[in-house]
Amino acid sequence: MEKGVFTSMYGNLLIIKQVIEKIIPFFQQYSLQSVTKRRNFLIFCQIAKLVQSSKHLTESGVKQIRILKSKMNLRTIGLA
After folding, report:
1. What is the CATH number of the domain that holds 20?
2. Which residue range(s) make up the domain with 43?
3. Backbone torsions φ then ψ of 74, nearest 5 degrees
4. Bigger pLDDT: 1 vs 38
């Protein structure tokens, strides 16, 4: 394996670890105020768990992630 490939893979592992250990707990403690943003965050958490468990490496896992992603960032009508 080339050095750059390993560094890239290692960097991605660190990013996933930081998302799981720091970013998600932060937003769980300090909840987002907007209903839409909260919903998007919950979907983001589901996707992060799939990636953490290496499901993104399978075809069915990629399909699951795409379905979840399609539910994100939908515009809503109304306040918060």
Report:
1. 3.10.28.10
2. 3-70
3. -85, 135
4. 38
In a domain, 77, yes or no: no
pLDDT at 6: 46
Question: Identity (one letter) of the amino acid at 56?
Answer: H
Say how many domains are in the chain.
1
State both tokens at 16. 């996933």
Residue whose entry in the numeric block shows the structure tokens 């990636």: 51
Q: For the chain, what is the HEC assignment?
A: CCHHHHHHHHHHHHHHHHHHHHHHHHHHHCCCCCHHHHHHHHHHHHHHHHHHCCHHHCHHHHHHHHHHHHCCCCCCCCCC
